[in-house]
Amino acid sequence: MPIVRDFRNYSFLPARIDRCGRNVGTRLYWKLYAIENTIRIVIHSVLTIQIGPNWWALGVDQRIAAKAQSFRRSYAAKPKNALPGTHDIHLVFLSDLTEIIRANSNLFAPVIPTTNQWIATLEGIRVSRNLVGHMNFPNAYDRTTIDNAYAQLPSLLGDLTTFPIPIDIPK
User: Fold this and answer.
1) Residue 136 in contact with residue 79, Cβ under 8 Å?
2) 3-state secondary structure of 167
3) What are the backbone angles phi and psi of residue 5, rounded to the nearest 5°?
């Protein structure tokens, strides 16, 4: 497979933009999708068991909850678009998810001994995730950081089954 380079460093050709988009989509975007949604499921599963089904109201900083409500209103104003899930966890960013884990680390640590490591991993991919999410072309460091975080997901899920915490997908 030929090396794909950032289209912004060359003369304009629509095919170059297409190649970059296909490369980022097939190499990284799906991994970020898997990481973020797995983290949402882990947070929801752990806090549902540790706090209860109303964990969002009890375990989430008001600033994050307000942000989710603001996004919810934006989606409601555009009824033709697909809606995120009904749970507010689907409306917040990776940095917010990381903060939820950090703020409730005393509840995560008994279940996931690597909680602090996960917080560091998620913080470590935040900039790379934002680059990809805002349609920029990542460099080798960004690609490696995302690849490494994705490769760690099985161990995170393994921690849940060791406790065991039932997997509960937020709707």
Assistant:
1) no
2) coil
3) -115, 155
120-123-127-133 Cα dihedral, nearest 10 degrees = 120
How does pLDDT run across 111-156, given as a tens digit for each residue?
999 999 999 999 999 999 999 999 999 999 999 999 999 999 999 9
CA atoms of 149 and 31, how far apart (whole Å) = 9
Residues 77-93 have pLDDT tens digits of: 999 999 899 999 999 99
Residue 24, C-beta contacts closer than 8 angstroms, at least 6 positions apart: 132, 135, 137, 138
Sign of the C-alpha dihedral, residues 104, 42, 44, 24?
positive
Q: What confidence tens digit (pLDDT) does each residue in 38-85 have?
A: 999 999 999 999 999 999 999 999 999 999 999 999 999 999 999 899
DSSP alpha helix (H) spans, the chain: 14-24, 30-50, 55-59, 62-76, 94-103, 105-108, 115-133, 140-151, 153-162
Helix axes 62-76, 94-103, angle to 10 degrees: 150
Distance between CA 43 and CA 90 in Å, rounded? 11
Of the CA atoms within 13 Å of residue 113, those in its CB half-sphere come to 6
